[in-house]
Recover the amino acids of this structure.
């Protein structure tokens, strides 16, 4: 049994290890809807991939990265608020994806697998490219860590202190897009944002530095993967939702036991 | 008609100005924010910008900082200019665990002794390991100032540094800024939230209302007709001064300390 889920387990652990630091920024910057938008657009990526007879993953990475770039460009204009814009892009790309799939004859898409992840479809080959992606994203995150924190605190101060604000933001969004593409394999497009925000939220009360919070978020995420998959095997529950529920459970525990006197 | 307009020499300084704006105008989305601004800042000079709301004070700072590009005109800065910027406000989300120490090291200077020394220079040593969300407004202001100072700036740019700080706190801040200028020989460009009270030690005041209404020493600006015209009536009508006679003062921790009857003087003893 373990052989069947081993690749999925490896991918899940890699995913959550990288999602901890990147997701922390989503929580700090109050932009969880940004993750959702990327995830929705990932479905368009799958459709594009199928439509052009490419590997769906290539489509996913290409489309999410493009949407990330588009969003950061669009957010500079001020006439439409950022959250409305995210909503438009999220639903627009999702709808376009579904329409595209219906147009191409002879394609059967496992929609449930895309939305909630299909662990049994994960192969050892997948772990290779996921691992490679994750290492790259991890290194990049390390490099842009301090500039990104400064931008988060005050982008004008960061700019005045010589940080290339737009470029760093763009790199971060591309990293996030890559992560969403990986995450779709494991928990699906609907739940990937959960793995980006719940572990950092759970880490908040225990951590006293940004770095601690990122690291703890990675650990909480990895434990959630293990717990969720175990539960899925034990009680035959769907894996993706079980993983997310495990993360929620750990978050609740952090609320109960992670009280920090100075954080209140 | 003369072939060229000779620029009148004003007591030629030993060193070149660190920032110069030549006929700078700024408009954003067709809305004109600044018109034909000329400004010169010499090394170690303190320049205070005053003006009503919407006068373009913050925009002017952003042009000096290089955050905005002027629509017309030119910004000239000296080659070795290092800017320390203190923004008007900085909101840190509660979800970010961040101590004052880490906040200061994020500015780029990670040297612990320098961080501690600079923090004590601004009288905020006690905040070092506190969470940045749990220090007072006045303390936050001084921490921001420390962060700007840690860059060893030759120019400090401060956006309404005294806003939300009481008069006593303002007085301390202005004293601190004057000391910083004297010790570090760095120029200070600041926007004052108050039209009537500016730092006494300021060398130059610029009254801005999209254009430069007037500029000069504080006294010269206060008597300038354009400055006076910004108000319908003198402030004396609406404000009174209440003079406190305290026999004590407060330390930064809020403790009450009795004052000496005689003003404290160093004449009779020496500090080591």
């Amino acid at each position: 049994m373990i052989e069947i889920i081993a690749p999925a387990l490896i991918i899940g652990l890699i995913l959550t290890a990288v999602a901890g630091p990147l997701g922390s920024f989503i929580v700090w910057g109050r932009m969880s809807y940004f993750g959702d938008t990327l995830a929705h657009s990932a479905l368009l990526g799958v459709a594009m991939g199928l439509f052009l007879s490419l590997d769906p993953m290539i489509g996913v990475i290409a489309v999410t990265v493009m949407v990330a770039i588009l969003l950061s460009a669009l957010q500079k204009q001020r006439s439409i608020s950022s959250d409305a814009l995210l909503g438009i892009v999220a639903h627009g790309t999702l709808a376009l994806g579904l329409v595209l799939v219906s147009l191409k004859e002879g394609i059967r898409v496992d929609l449930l697998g895309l939305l909630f992840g299909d662990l049994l479809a994960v192969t050892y080959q997948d772990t290779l490219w996921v691992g490679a992606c994750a290492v790259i994203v991890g290194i990049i995150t390390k490099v842009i860590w301090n500039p990104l924190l400064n931008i988060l605190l005050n982008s004008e101060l960061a700019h005045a202190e010589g940080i290339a604000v737009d470029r760093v933001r763009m790199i971060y969004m591309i990293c996030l897009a890559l992560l969403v593409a990986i995450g779709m394999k494991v928990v699906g497009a609907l739940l990937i944002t959960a793995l980006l925000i719940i572990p950092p939220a759970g880490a908040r009360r225990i951590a006293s530095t940004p770095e601690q919070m990122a690291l703890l978020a990675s650990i909480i995420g990895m434990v959630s993967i293990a717990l969720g998959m175990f539960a899925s095997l034990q009680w035959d529950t769907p894996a993706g939702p079980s993983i997310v529920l495990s993360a929620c459970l750990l978050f609740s525990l952090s609320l109960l036991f992670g009280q920090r006197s100075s954080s209140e | 008609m003369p072939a060229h307009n000779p620029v009148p020499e004003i007591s030629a300084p030993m060193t070149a100005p660190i920032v110069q704006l030549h006929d700078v105008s700024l408009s954003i989305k067709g809305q004109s924010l600044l018109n034909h601004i000329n400004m010169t800042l010499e090394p170690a000079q303190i320049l205070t910008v005053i003006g009503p709301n919407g006068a373009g004070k913050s925009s002017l700072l952003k042009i000096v900082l290089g955050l905005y590009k002027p629509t017309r005109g030119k910004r000239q800065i000296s080659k070795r200019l290092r800017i320390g910027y203190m923004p008007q406000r900085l909101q840190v989300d509660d979800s970010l665990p961040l101590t004052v120490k880490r906040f200061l090291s994020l500015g780029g200077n990670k040297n612990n002794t320098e961080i501690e020394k600079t923090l004590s220079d601004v009288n905020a040593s006690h905040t070092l390991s506190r969470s940045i969300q749990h220090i007072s407004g006045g303390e936050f202001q001084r921490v921001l100032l420390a962060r700007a100072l840690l860059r060893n700036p030759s120019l400090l740019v401060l956006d309404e540094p005294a806003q939300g700080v009481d008069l006593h706190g303002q007085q301390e801040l202005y004293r601190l800024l004057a000391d910083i200028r004297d010790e570090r020989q760095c120029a200070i460009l600041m926007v004052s939230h108050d039209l009537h009270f500016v730092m006494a030690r300021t060398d130059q005041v610029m009254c801005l209302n999209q254009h430069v209404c007037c500029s000069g020493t504080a006294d010269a600006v206060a008597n300038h007709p354009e400055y006076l015209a910004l108000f319908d009536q003198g402030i004396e009508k609406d404000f009174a001064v209440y003079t406190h006679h305290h026999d004590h003062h407060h330390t930064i921790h809020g403790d009450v300390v009795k004052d000496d009857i005689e003003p404290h003087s160093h004449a009779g003893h020496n500090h080591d």
